Amino acid sequence: MAAGDMHAVDALIGERMGSPVPLIPELARYIIEAGGKRIRPLITVAAARMLGYEGKAHVSLAAAVEFIHTATLLHDDVVDESDLRRGRTPANRVWGNAQSVLVGDFLFARAFMLMVDAGSMDALHVLSRAAAVIAEGEVHQLVAAGNIATGRAEYMDIIGAKTAALFSAAAQVSPIVAGRPEREEQALETYGRELGLAFQLVDDALDYGGLTADLGKNTGDDFREGKVTLPVVLALQAASGEERAFWEAVMARKEQEATSFERAVAILKAHGALEATLAAARSHAQTAKDALAIFPRNPWRDALEQLAEFVVERAY
Amino acid sequence: MAAGDMHAVDALIGERMGSPVPLIPELARYIIEAGGKRIRPLITVAAARMLGYEGKAHVSLAAAVEFIHTATLLHDDVVDESDLRRGRTPANRVWGNAQSVLVGDFLFARAFMLMVDAGSMDALHVLSRAAAVIAEGEVHQLVAAGNIATGRAEYMDIIGAKTAALFSAAAQVSPIVAGRPEREEQALETYGRELGLAFQLVDDALDYGGLTADLGKNTGDDFREGKVTLPVVLALQAASGEERAFWEAVMARKEQEATSFERAVAILKAHGALEATLAAARSHAQTAKDALAIFPRNPWRDALEQLAEFVVERAY
Predict the structure, then answer these.
(1) What mean pLDDT do residues B278-301 have?
(2) If you ran DSSP here, which 8-state letter would residue B43 be given?
(3) Do A121 and B119 touch (CB under 8 A)?
(4) Which one of A7, B22, B152, B295 is most buried, by most CB atoms within 10 A?
(5) Per-residue pLDDT tens for A25-75?
(6) Mean pLDDT along residues A216-225
């Protein structure tokens, strides 16, 4: 149902990643076409349509949101220094750190040009603030990496900034361009933020194989990078002395051996940390759905509800 | 004379680099307070005042321009991978690549928040386009690094994008917020672009010690990084076979020995390449000054003219 608008978003993305410097679209395409689910622009599109918006600004804003996300992914690859991320060779390992940084900058700038096209200063305010908050969250996570004293509240702050801020902005810009009242803007801001938190917590659980413990090629990124995500925070709360020493070694000192990751998964499972993380994700997804209750039911509202279900169902 | 406005710009810069994540202002301060000459924001301020602008948007835009410049410097350090740049340890060698990338992103996002404060969609258009062009120019220079076939026209394209685009945007936003006619906007856009080209060419000559051949701690960055700048382009046009082999070795293959830099300087001097580069800089600075002729003479116009003179005089 969203196919028409999302096709327009994809076309715009393809057009705006263009440059006379061939390396730019080449590298941008590598990451943009890496099978991204386009969840963030879908939120913008579906929210705009749910509100009966008839203009075209939502398409530009949706593309801008995806560009911000893509720029963040490119810069994350430089930050994380892994040989494998999200199951494939990161762009910086193919083209180099410098190239990834600069193409990220290019996409970031193009995102703002798309926002200018959309023509709403209020939407620009929301998205530029989100971009600053994302960077703050990333720096916060970097500082917290390897710190096994990271608590649940601090971790939720980090992902509220690094992940949920963009989901929330993606949802909030639609009522803004549609000229809807403050109450609806707040409801969609809540929807986006809670959906973003749910999305990140599911990602965190999946990085340890989720409930099926399917340790495929997409797992272990966070562990290798020493990121103290919610599963680890929860396992640490219930840890024996020996387990605490293990987390200290693999996270704080990055003393990781061939069997370390499997042991980490076993400890997480023993304490039910993945189930508890997914339970938290379900709770945030439910809050996201509840926030939509003020809107009259229509197929677009249904789509947003289904998105909240899909985000959690990925884990099962 | 510009002191009042520039003080306001500095205060705004100090305020907007703030963050609850302490590493951010710490790292940002390292680079922002590194004795930057604030040339770009000075252009915005002086141009606005020359036009009789009485509002406050120029202060926000000037700070935004400096933040874009600072973000670019932070990301350049990651790109260039030197142990010493601009005569000091680059931020990424003090805090790490990841930190420099993310704080650059933060400042970039904050730049756009400042533009939103200024409230002009047209200024946002000009500055977001400039940011994209800068990234394109940086990628272009990266691709051209070590390529001794880089010609003069291609090199001028590169610096037109990586350096002059921001100078030009810094000048152009002032007539925009002051609501001045297209003709004045074009004149200031020309002023900024030509000043930016002059500035970069002087930098290029100074990186080889300029006319005084003062090979202090601020020299040799471009050489070490294999950047084929205008002095090298000009020396290559007049190169003997042996000299061409030298440039091929030190630039394309980065085979640099302890004496390579001194030899490079000697070759540049033998061909008058530094003089020719500075002559080109003077010509661009003159074109910049000429572009101001349509404006009535006042102290602010004088300041912009003096800035064009200062930019070139640095080399003597």
Answers:
(1) 98
(2) H
(3) yes
(4) B295
(5) 999 999 888 767 899 999 999 999 999 999 999 999 999 999 999 999 999
(6) 84
Q: Provide the token pair at B199.
A: 């500035």
CA distance B228 to B158: 11
Q: Quick check: B181 and B202 in contact, CB under 8 A?
A: no
CB neighbourhood size of B266 (10 A): 11
Total residue length of chain B: 316
Determine the distance in angstroms separating the CA of A46 from the nearest CA of chain B, rounded to an integer. 26
Instruction: Measure Cα distances from A52 to A48, A174, B203, B315 in Å.
Output: 7, 10, 55, 61
Q: Please give the Cα distance from B79 to B135 (Å, whole number).
A: 12
Say how far apart CA B41 and CA B53 lie, in whole Å. Answer: 15
B15 to chain A, closest Cα gap in Å:
14
Query: Taking a C-beta distance cutoff of 8 angstroms, is the pair B56, B35 a contact?
Result: no
| pLDDT value, residue B35 | 60
- Residue of chain B whose Cα is closest to the Cα of A123: B116
Closest-CA residue of chain A to B22 = A140
Q: Are A116 and B128 an interchain contact pair (Cβ–Cβ within 8 Å)?
A: yes
Whole-number CA gyration radius for chain B: 20
Residue B201 has pLDDT above 70, yes or no: yes
- At B39-95, the pLDDT tens digits run 999 999 999 999 999 999 999 999 999 999 999 999 988 877 667 766 778 888 888
Shortest Cα distance, chain B CAs vs residue A69, angstroms: 12
Average model confidence (pLDDT) across chain B: 94
| % of chain B beyond a pLDDT of 90 | 84
Radius of gyration of chain A (CA): 20
Residue B84 phi/psi, 5-degree rounding, is -145, 130
| Three-class DSSP category at A134 | helix
- ipTM for this prediction: 0.95
Lowest mean pLDDT: which of A263-267, B125-129, B154-158, B310-314? Answer: B310-314
Contacts of A103 in chain B (CB under 8 A): 135, 139
Options 2.130.10.10, 1.10.600.10, 1.20.1250.20, 3.40.50.970; CATH for B3-313 is 1.10.600.10
Distances (CA, A) of B11 to A84, B15, B110, B113, B185: 43, 6, 15, 16, 27
- H helix runs in B33-164, sequence order: 39-50, 57-80, 91-95, 97-118, 121-144, 152-159
Residues across chain A: 316
Using an 8 Å CB-CB cutoff, list chain B residues near A97: 78-79, 97
Tell me which chain A residues have a C-beta less than 8 angstroms from the C-beta of B99.
139, 142
Considering only alpha carbons, which residue of chain B is nearest residue A140?
A: B21
**Taking CB atoms and an 8 Å limit, are A103 and B132 in contact across chains?**
no
Q: Which amino acid is at B167?
A: F
Task: Please compute the mean of the pLDDT values over residues A111-139 and round it to a whole number.
Answer: 98
Name the CA dihedral angle for A35, A36, A41, A42, rounded to a multiple of 10 degrees.
70
Q: Which residues of B touch A (CB under 8 A)?
A: 19-21, 23-24, 71-72, 75, 78-81, 97-99, 101-106, 108-110, 112-113, 115-116, 119, 121, 124-125, 128-129, 131-132, 134-136, 138-140, 142-143
